[in-house]
Amino acid sequence: MTTYRIAPSLLSADFARLGQEVRAVIDAGADWIHVDVMDNHYVPNLTIGPLVCRAIRPHAQRADGTPVPLDVHLMVQPVDALALAFAEAGADWISFHPDASIHVDRSLQAIRAAGCRSGLVFNPAEPVDRLEWVLDKVDLVLIMSVNPGFGGQGFIDSALRKLERVRRMIDASGRDIRLEVDGGIKADNIRRVADAGADTFVAGSAIFGQGDYRQVIDAMRAELAAGR
Ligand code: DX5
Ligand code: ZN
Fold first, then answer.
1. For the structural domain made of 5-226, what CATH number should be given?
2. Which of 8, 47, 96, 101 has its CA at a distance of 20 to 30 angstroms from the CA of residue 41?
3. Percentage helix, strand, coil for the chain under 3-state DSSP, each rounded to 5
């Protein structure tokens, strides 16, 4: 049975109250915290650096003290130095865009060597073929269903076919690799996206844009449970 994960993106949180926002969304049922790192070079926006990641790390835990994974999505170029800085700042999962790294295999190895799980992210127009050559070095594949850089954009439908293709690759490999989707995810499309093969769902504006985080996360879980 698939274990679904919901990963609220801090991009739509109140940056003046980040620690409280992290706690609130965990109390509301978040499984992971998605941290969008933008450098105003690879994408036209500038967000969170390693210092902020380190500052939110102690807030990312459940009431009983269990740590909640920080899922760091690097939209930066070059990749390696910042990936290591985020590993030191408490990241659990670190993903990057293959077109932002000259040596993708080396970057993946460096992330694992730093004690984190490694992920590769594919933009809407980026082919996933190269995944075949590094499947043994990735713990997560992230399919972008918007162009990276901003929250609140509409879901791009071709991501569904791409998810189906990557799901087949992962299943054929027999490896334990999570398949995450990012961009335009809401309670009213999450079921379709899960049917296409995703098991991990990033949602920014759909959760932090609403007053009641729990209500949205519960609605997403109800959709996921209904389709089983
Ligand atoms: C976009 C980011 C996303 C973004 C998603 O570059 O990677 O994580 O926050 O936001 P929504 O859910 O609003 O599309
Ligand atoms: Zn993201």
1. 3.20.20.70
2. 8
3. 40, 20, 40
